Amino acid sequence: MMIPDGIEDEEKWLAEGIAGIQHNAFYMHRALDANNLREVLKYSAQMLSELRTSKLSPHKYYELYMRAFDELRKLEMFFKDESRHGVSIVDLYELVQHAGNILPRLYLLCTVGSVYIKSKEAPAKDVLKDLVEMCLGVQHPIRGLFLRCYLAQISRDKLPDIGSEYKGDSDTVVDAVDFVLQNFIEMNKLWVRLKHQGPGRSREKLEKERSELRDLVGKNLHVLSQIEGVDLEMYKDTVLPRILEQIVNCKDDLSQYYLMDCIIQVFPDEYHLQTLETLLGACPLLQPTVDIKTVLSQLMDRLSNYAASSTDVLPEFLRVEAFAKLSSAIGRVIEAQVEMPIVGAITLYVSLLTFTLRVHPDRLDYVDQVLGACVKKLSGKPKLEDSKAKKQVVALLSAPLEKYKDIVMALTLSNYPRVMDHLDNETNKVMAMVIIQSILKNTSCISTADQVEVLFELIKGLVKDLDGTDVEELDEEDFKEEQNSVARLIHMLYNDDPEEMLKIICAAKKNIMNGGPKRLPFTVPPLILSALGLIRRLQGREGDLTGEEVPATPKNIFQILNQAIEALTTVPSPELALRLYLECAEAANDCDLEPVAYEFFTQAFVLYEEEITDSKSQVTAIHLIIGTLQRMNVFGVENRDTLTHKATGYSAKLLKKPDQCRAVYACSHLFWVDDLDGIKDGERVLLCLKRALRIANAAQQMINITRGSSGPVTLFVEILNKYLYFFEKGNPQVTSAAIQALIELITTETKSDSTAPDAVSDPFFASTLRYIQFQKQKGGAMSEKYDSIKV
């Protein structure tokens, strides 16, 4: 019985034990030098008696054992040399059995037995059988384990194996296997019994001490794996069944876990593949507390690596139906271990899926089967809350994406979305981001409407509010990142066939429109731009196509886009909606659809009038309207006049005079379009420029009144540049005299005492004058035009 005393006491007992060994070893060495067998046996037995202690922990006992082991090697050398002690090995084998105590007697017997086998005076199998049975005399767990460890150590190179010098006519590999197995079984029994030692010892300390001794037991399995004669047949028929029988019968979770792990690690992968059914059959019989998921994961990992090592072994995996056996075994284990936490079951499915993807990547039905088994396990339970379990589900769902690098493959798996349904909203969004990142990283193209529907079902946590989530509670930065990812995803939805592309756009629109006001500003623009790309591919296509619910014609697509942008106006996000209306108007212009283009412009103006109230936003919006309208060539005279009149009217009504001035002179471009058939109305251009000048003059006077000094002449210089532009373009209404007058006005203003130097307008004006000088000097027709302007 081990006594639960302090560490100091244990150190004292160890020191006493080592001193006893050294003392008796000293006299043993003297007897060895004198070749005095009687004295040698006497002092060696006294030395080995120190190993009879029960006071030491396994760790400290090991130190004591190693001291004795070193001395036993010297003793073996003496026993081997018959000329020194004059006794035959057979008599010596009998003689050492007269030692007083059983433990020293058995150590001496094993030492002489080693010499006996080497002498070949008796068959190795008989000596080994005698020794392994004699060791049954020591049943104390620690003493027995170390004794049998010594037996295993001195016998490992003397087993009657194939090619061994100790394999006689009557000795066979079976005898070697029987010996190692018997020693292993007895050692495991002692190891298991150790957990019942000392009622006062804490369970944690006992488990730690037992764990320190596990390699003593595991070495036997390593020896078995090294025996040349253990071929697949013997392993299958004898070795594995006997090991598994002992593992199952010992009913100890530490022993079962460690030994199952040993089997997987020490025996060849080929053996595991051929005995899969036997090995897996033991798994459900293990104790419920055994960490079977790690054992099975390691087995599948070994088999996966084996399959990856050579393509030649893959047919064998199919022949033995490895997937079916592993899948069935995992099902039985989960069923048998009712207390197994959900994370354990999911971890097993992750390992099985990893195995499947590595060994049978072409079998999508296997992948779906694993996901289906996971769904079955999760069904009837509330949504996962355990963070480790959620992490494992994400790993399970990510594995096919990482393997195939193609989301389309995952979209064909019927159980994929069903697994996602069991995730809580937060993890669902995490998984949705993983899916989107995979698509973007691998530039996967989603090319059918059905695939789009499945995809949006998978990422629904990002495109709409799930039950129980409040979009207002989301982190702003995270929300923006998520929605920008969805926006990028929309550009990955594509098909060369216009009809299918239209179905894709309709499917995406249906899902996006459920996103709520916070999401639409992110997701509608990419949808609109994607649809406009389709429209440009369809330019000139008219009429109805038979067999299609919604024919892919520009008109039909524009109707869909109008509905999508209208949703943005209710968000409200009027600036964005206005930009999109103008984009659509330009596309309608390219398709020569005047009524459609006019309608989009009308919607843009309505938004400007009713929704855009901020002065800065108004300035931006009116310049966008002017710029887009200037590029339009689809309008007839009446429609164009209406729209340009509106644009110039709104320009003159902006809040700030400088903004009014710039918008009005920008309108001048609406009356002079520099292409072959473009409008060229010089009078209205001049009207715009003169109106801009009046506004600039009014702005200058307001500054003078409020500040007591004239402001910068920047607006005048900008208008001068517009005059020069139209002058060069050949507008007959813009004359050199008008330019000359404007230059003189600016010069007078800049030289005025009330005008302070300005870092922007002064260099700007100087640069403009240099340009005029350059045009005068360069020669040619343009030089002649500029000749009358004096600078």
Automatic annotation (TrEMBL):
Q: How does it sit in the membrane?
A: Peripheral membrane protein
* Keyword Protein transport (UniProt): yes
The protein's UniProt keywords, in alphabetical order, are: Cytoplasm, Endosome, Golgi apparatus, Membrane, Protein transport, Transport
Q: Where in the cell is it found?
A: Cytoplasm; Endosome membrane; Golgi apparatus, trans-Golgi network membrane; Prevacuolar compartment membrane
Q: What GO terms describe the biological role, i.e. biological process, of this protein?
A: intracellular protein transport; retrograde transport, endosome to Golgi
Q: What does this protein do?
A: Plays a role in vesicular protein sorting.
Regarding protein family, the annotation reads: Belongs to the VPS35 family.
Q: What is this protein called?
A: Vacuolar protein sorting-associated protein 35
> Can you name the source organism?
Carya illinoinensis (Pecan)
